TrEMBL record:
<keyword id="KW-0067">ATP-binding</keyword>
<dbReference type="InterPro" id="IPR001245">
    <property type="entry name" value="Ser-Thr/Tyr_kinase_cat_dom"/>
</dbReference>
<dbReference type="GO" id="GO:0005886">
    <property type="term" value="C:plasma membrane"/>
</dbReference>
<dbReference type="GO" id="GO:0007169">
    <property type="term" value="P:cell surface receptor protein tyrosine kinase signaling pathway"/>
</dbReference>
<keyword id="KW-0732">Signal</keyword>
<keyword id="KW-0812">Transmembrane</keyword>
<dbReference type="InterPro" id="IPR000719">
    <property type="entry name" value="Prot_kinase_dom"/>
</dbReference>
<keyword id="KW-0675">Receptor</keyword>
<keyword id="KW-0547">Nucleotide-binding</keyword>
<dbReference type="GO" id="GO:0005524">
    <property type="term" value="F:ATP binding"/>
</dbReference>
<dbReference type="GO" id="GO:0004714">
    <property type="term" value="F:transmembrane receptor protein tyrosine kinase activity"/>
</dbReference>
<keyword id="KW-0472">Membrane</keyword>
<dbReference type="Pfam" id="PF07714">
    <property type="entry name" value="PK_Tyr_Ser-Thr"/>
</dbReference>
<feature type="domain" description="Protein kinase">
    <location>
        <begin position="1"/>
        <end position="90"/>
    </location>
</feature>
<dbReference type="InterPro" id="IPR050122">
    <property type="entry name" value="RTK"/>
</dbReference>
<keyword id="KW-1133">Transmembrane helix</keyword>
<protein>
    <recommendedName>
        <fullName>Protein kinase domain-containing protein</fullName>
    </recommendedName>
</protein>
Length: 90
């Protein structure tokens, strides 16, 4: 990695989350998702996270499932490209 930094090919990416992190949301509302089993359950909204801002976001379970699929696909992609992610490194 030192060589990449010296060549100027090192890139640091940071998240921008004006509504708070997905991790915070799932930690606060984990119990709200337990026991969901039907399509109707997936369409119901879950209360928004209070992030100390006037802005908040209401995420229903189907949106969160979509996020999970996207994250899994992205993790596979960066592993294939031999990218080291700070939160995923073992």
């Amino acid at each position: 990695m030192i060589e990449e930094i010296q060549r100027g090919t090192f890139l640091a990416v940071f998240e921008f989350s004006p509504f708070g992190s997905l991790r915070e949301y799932l930690t606060i509302y984990a119990g709200s998702y337990a026991g969901l089993s039907s399509e109707e359950d997936l369409q119901e909204g879950i209360p928004p996270v209070s992030s100390g801002s006037e802005l908040s976001m209401d995420l229903n379970p189907s949106v969160l499932i979509s996020f999970c699929k996207q994250i899994a696909n992205d993790m596979a992609y960066i592993a294939q490209k031999k990218v080291v992610h700070r939160d995923l490194a073992i």
